[in-house]
Write a structure and sequence with these properties.
Layout lengths: L2 E5 L6 H15 L3 E8 L11 H4 L5 H35 L5 E8 L1 H8 L3 E7 L9 H15 L3 E4 L9 E4 L4 H12 L8 E6 L4 H16 L4 E6 L3 H11 L4 E5 L5 H6 L2 H9 L4 E4 L1
Parallel strand pairs: 1-2, 1-4, 2-3, 4-5, 6-7, 6-9, 7-8, 9-10
Antiparallel strand pairs: 5-10
Length: 284
């Protein structure tokens, strides 16, 4: 796990992904890989075989023309991807990243990321992929599948990325959220940034004790912290808190076992991605 991997696809979040990658690379002292994946169904490597579909008596020339069309489309897609990666490399380096490597692959995004997982220290994805307006359900599925499959820290950014000045950790006392606290304490990614801890639920002695324990752990690691416990529904409470307190980044454990888990997983993942008003860092 050595590199920051940033997925770029030419969508409206691509510039923000580059900016986020440069920010993370500088804080982690890690190189960046810009990853562009050509979908194997939209851009097949081998020309399609139409011989069984055209029927008897069709001219061989038509088959050749169709195969040539597929080949040319593939070439154009690869060249377009190469130019995109070059532009993204220039932007990421211009934003402060020292070492930036472009990488183009052919296949499924999640499968590609799974192959590269051993080298991924932080994965960065845009809130909407290419054609996100029309394919929002698929975008949400890709993101959820990536989080489920990779078990790597994943930063989801919006159309613009600004380096956060204050961070909110949604904390529910679950093993996953406790592990998220440990990861934050040990990682340089958010070092020296003030961190708010928010628990959404009933104000009980158990909840208070768990919140105090997490706050103390981060304080020992040198973070400026403050904690809050609020009743209500997870989504509106978190949204209101981020607005009221100038939060620039939301951090959540990806596999908690409380209402935050219900908020994050399944069909609600798409809702989180679509409705988020600030970048989200998902930790396992």
């Amino acid at each position: 796990m050595n590199r920051v991997y940033a997925c770029v696809d030419g969508s409206r979040t691509t510039e923000a992904v580059c900016s986020a990658a440069a920010w993370a690379a500088q804080r982690l002292g890690a190189p960046v890989t810009l990853l562009h994946v050509l979908d194997r169904f939209e851009h097949p490597q081998a020309p399609a075989d139409f011989s069984g579909n055209i029927g008897l008596g069709s001219r061989e020339q038509l088959l050749e023309e169709l195969a040539e069309l597929d080949r040319r489309r593939g070439q154009l897609a690869r060249e377009q991807g190469r130019l995109l990666l070059e532009a993204c490399r220039e932007r990421t380096q211009g934003a402060g990243a020292r070492e930036v490597e472009p990488l183009q692959r052919h296949g499924e995004l999640v499968d590609t990321l799974a192959e590269l997982a051993g080298d991924i220290r932080l994965l960065i994805l845009g809130q909407h992929g290419e054609d996100g307006d029309r394919l929002s359900r698929q975008v949400g599925t890709h993101l959820e599948n990536a989080v489920r499959t990779l078990h790597r820290p994943t930063l989801i950014t919006l159309e613009q990325f600004t380096a956060p000045e204050r961070v909110l950790l949604a904390y529910d006392g679950s093993p996953t959220s406790r592990k998220a606290v440990e990861r934050l304490a040990e990682s340089p990614l958010l070092r020296a940034l003030p961190i708010d801890l928010l628990t959404v639920g009933a104000d009980t002695a158990v909840a208070r004790a768990a919140l105090d324990e997490a706050e103390a752990r981060l304080a020992r690691a040198g973070f400026e912290t403050r904690s809050t416990l609020r009743a209500g529904e997870v989504v509106p409470v978190i949204d209101a808190y981020t607005r009221e307190n100038g939060i620039g980044l939301l951090v959540m454990g990806a596999w908690g076992h409380s209402r935050i888990r219900q908020f994050l997983l399944g069909s609600t993942t798409t809702r989180l991605i679509q409705e988020a008003r600030l970048p989200i860092l998902l930790l396992h």
